[in-house]
Write a structure and sequence with these properties.
The chain is of the alpha+beta class. It contains five helices and four strands. It has one domain: 3-Layer(aba) Sandwich (Glutaredoxin), CATH 3.40.30.10. Helices cover 39% and strands 21% of the residues. Strands 2-1-3-4 form a four-stranded mixed beta sheet.
């Protein structure tokens, strides 16, 4: 198991049921959830869960949103590969709380990402 430092983190996967790549990626995402003991992993279908995630512009699947210590630290597409996602998640999960805040506010684009988090709260698992 990969363990994150205190305060945990969330990983939200934004996909669509009609997307074959997303369907193929789902078992890998679920397996990653089992590897990271302090993380909350949530899968949202951008159409079925449009009320919750419709405000997020998703152009490529799969797209991940990673939250660390109350800050969105990553929003973007990932290769549909568990190894790639594992490294990405581990790097952001390892950020110190103050570093997560600094990183989240280090560019205008990242500052805008922070507005995306509130409609996703509380982030809770969904099958």
């Amino acid at each position: 198991m990969v363990e994150a430092p205190c305060c945990g983190f969330s990983v939200v996967c934004l996909c669509a049921d009609w997307c074959g790549t997303c369907r193929d990626y789902r078992p890998h995402f679920d397996a990653l959830a089992g590897e990271f003991s302090d993380g909350r992993f949530v899968w949202y279908d951008i159409e079925d869960d449009a009320e919750r995630v419709g405000h997020i512009d998703v152009e490529t699947f799969p797209t991940l949103l990673i939250e660390r210590a109350g800050h969105v630290v990553y929003l973007g597409p990932v290769l549909p590969d568990a190894g790639h996602a594992r490294r990405l998640i581990a790097s952001f999960a390892a950020l110190a709380v103050d570093a997560a805040g600094q990183y989240a506010n280090s560019s205008a684009e990242r500052v805008q990402w922070q507005e995306l988090l509130e409609p996703l709260q509380p982030v809770s698992p969904k099958d």
